[in-house]
Design a protein that fits this description.
The chain is of the alpha+beta class. The chain has one domain. It has 2 helices and 5 strands, in the order ββαβαββ. The strands form 2 sheets. Strands 1-2-3 form a 3-stranded antiparallel beta sheet, with helices on one face. A two-stranded antiparallel sheet has the order 4-5. A hairpin with a 3-residue loop joins strand 1 and strand 2. It is globular and about 45 Å long.
Length: 97
Amino acid sequence: MAFPRGRAALAPALAPDVGMRQARVVTAVEVAGAELHHHYRVGRWVPHVSIATHAQGTRLASVVRMVSDLLPLTLQVDRAALVDSSTGETWPLPHLL
């Protein structure tokens, strides 16, 4: 996937329970009174793995070639956290795994 401002990401195939976990995260965040960006709400969230965050348009083809040489990737989530992307502050969520 390519996003505005030079972002590139992979859209992974996910196990069915990941969507249910994400819904539980949304509920936990809302119950805690934390602010949640609308892109992370249930039904709007697009799971992805960021590959490049500031690639110039002319370099995206190179990014795609490099990544395609490594595919397929198999990943396993071993931890979860709530991250404030504006400050980098992180709160581990060990009960979600």
